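Fold Annotation — chain and its backbone
Next Lines — sequence and tokenised fold

***
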Amino acid sequence: MLIPIIQAMLLRELAAVQRSVQAYPDDASVWAQPDGVPNAGGTLVLHLAGNLQHYVGAVLGGNGYVRDRAAEFSRRDVPRAALLAEVAAALSAVERTLPTLREESLSQPYSERIGGRVLTIETFLVHLATHLAYHLGQLDYHRRVVTGDAKGVGALSPGAIGL
């Protein structure tokens, strides 16, 4: 029963990433870099989308995606429409891959070493969900700081878990 739960949470958080990107008033504000903030919102979006496209879509799903992690952190001024396309690709990777996994496979080693360690698929999927939620929080605060708009986008709403 873990696979549908992880899928629902990843999809919920990715939908919140989409709403966050749409809540920026323009393409430039998503790339603003206030003092003391290590990553612009656009950087966070590229990183989250690339991360899930790689670890879920390519590694678990074999979809052929080739990650350029360095570009996730070096690209600038990517329009919001292109950022949203990356998030949509990550959503697709999750929607297509996770239902193909068998619960029995979750105790097997994930096929790539993570931080020099061998993790089970189950452990790594939980890590991916918490990693996404962590950076979603950063994205939400970035948008609020840059725009001065304290209104939320409904991130992490328990009612939005599609189970």
